[in-house]
Amino acid sequence: MKARLSLAITTGLLLVLALLPLYARWVDEPFLLTFSTRALVLALAALSLNIVLGLGGMVSFGHALYLGLGAYSVGILASHGVDNGAVQLLITVVLCAAVGLATGWVSLRTSGIGFIMITLAFAQMFYYLFVSLKQYGGDDGLSISLRSQLLGLDMGAPLTLYYSAFACVLAVVVWTQHMVHAPFGMVLQACRMNERRMNALGFHTLRYKLSAYVLSCVIAGVAGFLYANLTGYASPAYLAWTVSGELIVMVVLGGMGTVLGPLVGALALLGCEELLKGLTEHWPIILGPFIVLVVLLARRGLYGLALDWDARRASRHTSHLAARSSAHKEAA
């Protein structure tokens, strides 16, 4: 059987991302490296959201909260002269896990529109909390003069930050691929399909969903840590509901529930946005219908098209083998 389209796209995409900094340096385009780093950081946040949205069926409309917590963990510590990346990352993980556990324990006792609104409410609460912290910039945000120093690496160096983001994205993609086929992932997906039946079978679905939610929050916090080092800035705008909406669009556009879909969605959304900005100042009028068209024509997103094509080809291949087997039996 010929190579699968989805595998070819995955291999090609990861190879391009791995070599892109070399190309950016060769053509002397530092903006390309900065843009690609931003895309990878937001893709990491989208991958974290896909764990609860795509696999668990939990529509979190406040996931930007953890992106902001990661950014402010870097910014606040840096403002006090702490540039140790390991300390910043540890505080980010602990803080996001604690907040995710507390908010998830409350939010997951609801479902549907209730879950959406509660996650949004928690994100807005923290948004206004950081707006009120005048000693850390308030509504104007917090400028970060000290970049993180992590394991001897200067996160302020563009190349170091890019490959750090790429390594995190690659690690989450590989981990998600394994989790989907592991018992934990299968129970999580079953909860999305029929939670009542899973409860009847004896599974404590709240524990599984809460564990996935906390893991997702921690990964989003790591994305915030990288984002703060990229922009040199921590702002309440990172926690805004519009950022959460953009993450949802990335997941849906790339392929909700697919392993690589959020990465494809992030690159497609940000790439189209950047291209359209160069054509017209009214670029949202073009981008909006494009997103609607993709959602209507490709139910599983852009990456889902490749998966569906592979599935159809595999089905035709199986039918062809069955027909040949039947013909050989009749001839015998």
List low-pLDDT spans: none
Fraction of residues in helices?
over 70%
- CATH architecture name: Orthogonal Bundle
Strand content: under 5%
Order of helices and strands: HHHHHEEEHHHEHHHH
Instruction: Compute the number of helices.
Output: 12
Mean pLDDT: 88
Q: Termini distance?
A: 26 Å
Q: What structural class do helix, strand and pairing data support?
A: mainly alpha
Major sheet description = 2 strands, antiparallel
Strand order of the largest sheet: 1-4
Shape: globular
The CATH C-level name is Mainly Alpha
Radius of gyration: 22 Å
Number of domains: 1
Describe this structure in words.
There is one protein chain. This protein has a single domain, classed as ABC transporter involved in vitamin B12 uptake, BtuC. It has 332 residues and is mainly alpha-helical. The radius of gyration is 22 Å and the shape is globular. The strands form 2 sheets. The protein has a two-stranded antiparallel sheet with strand order 1-4. Strands 2-3 form a two-stranded antiparallel sheet. It has 12 helices and 4 strands, in the order H-H-H-H-H-E-E-E-H-H-H-E-H-H-H-H.
List the helices and strands and how they pair.
Blueprint: H1 5-26, H2 30-55, H3 64-79, H4 85-107, H5 113-132, E1 142-143, E2 149-150, E3 153-154, H6 158-181, H7 183-200, H8 205-231, E4 233-234, H9 241-254, H10 261-277, H11 283-297, H12 301-331
Antiparallel strand pairs: 1-4, 2-3
